[in-house]
Fold:
Amino acid sequence: MPNTMRAIVAEAPGGPESLQMKELPIPAPGEGEVRIQVAYAPLNPLDTHARADRIKWMHPGFPFVPGYEYSGRVVETGEGADPSLKGKRVAVNGQWNGNGEFAIARAAGLVSIPDRFNYQLGSTFSTCAPTSWHLVHSAGRVQPGQTVVVHSAAGAVGVMTTQIAKEAGATVIGLAGGGKKAEWASQFGADHMLDYRSGEWPSQVKEFTGGRGADVIIDGVQGPNAPRNYEACAPLGNVIYIGAMGGPAPQVDISFLVGKSISVTGFVQFFHQSRSRQAEDAEIEEKLASGQWRIPIERVVRLDETPAMHAAFENRELFGRTLIELGGEGV
Structure:
């Protein structure tokens, strides 16, 4: 085995151009850790937020190797890690270093990749699929006949949430930033797709629901226009803000809470990781393996294209998931 590896490094806060390809020593696993030969690393929004120093939560500190989620094969185990993990195909999320040919991860945080999944699907399923399942069934408690609004419906979580909410019997209204994204996202079953940038979407939601509004609104974007969710929400409805993806949730005008009795809740992504594996895992595996649910992988790029993908993400040019290929399917 060579002594060095290629990796993308964020040396200091900056734009996409601050990312540099470097040759680094191949790391050795410490106690309770494993070394993974990386197959693919999906571009995660937290990669861009951490590179630009827009977040403090879970920031690894500079310099660091981005790659907040990835797939690969365990090639070495450290002291205290189960030696039987060696050779296993695994997914990693919530740990950095996936933008390098080899990465060190905590053995306790590994997710086994089902035999029916290739590495591309294996690199994406353990994040957006359970997150979407719990948004619909745990946080949203979506019931047949309800109306669900999904922000960023052209993103991976939005696409999965749309499919799962539709299967739960809901009418789904998807929001996307521009007509091109809305048209692309429509293939995943939303009953209506709206252009978020038009500014007319709250009144359009009201129109589609006979003036009542949406029962559940799922927003991972937030931002300055997020209070408009409260205009589009039905009485007794629920607005759910997803984790740290879009920054702090906006302030709520008390008149909306009193006048419409809506609830505004937060959903920390990946909270389900602390739970024991339950029935949803089997459902997710079966429906992804059979193609009943799809995680759209729209681009697979080389490691040296990572800075360009950060720029494309921040310019809202990406749909679905973008994968950075390291070792690929041959790992």
